[in-house]
Design brief:
This protein is an all-alpha fold and 115 residues long. The longest helix has 16 residues. The chain is globular.
Length: 115
Amino acid sequence: HVELGYSIVSQLTGLERAAAVVRSHEERFDGTGYPHGLKGEKIPVGARLFAVIDTLDAMTSDRSYRRGLDFEKAKEEILRMSGSQFDPVAVDLFLAEEKVLRDMVALKCGQPQSV
């Protein structure tokens, strides 16, 4: 899906950097991701940030084959994968914005937001 997404976004004038994020958001910080096996800071910073948020969204969304996780379980998994799947700096930024992200997940899932 990353190459198809890249193909679509790269055709839009002025969205070259966004296209690079789309293409690279499945790369892993430890170099075991795809499509190019980029590692660490060779992955565009936007893709490193987006990877955390995309994963949060995927884990907290219901699928036909499973119920979405609650925010706390998703957070635990993101923390566990810091340094391997995710850039530790991106995870630190995730933690710094936890309240906002928690509220976004609650809103998406039709749950009451925190105060």
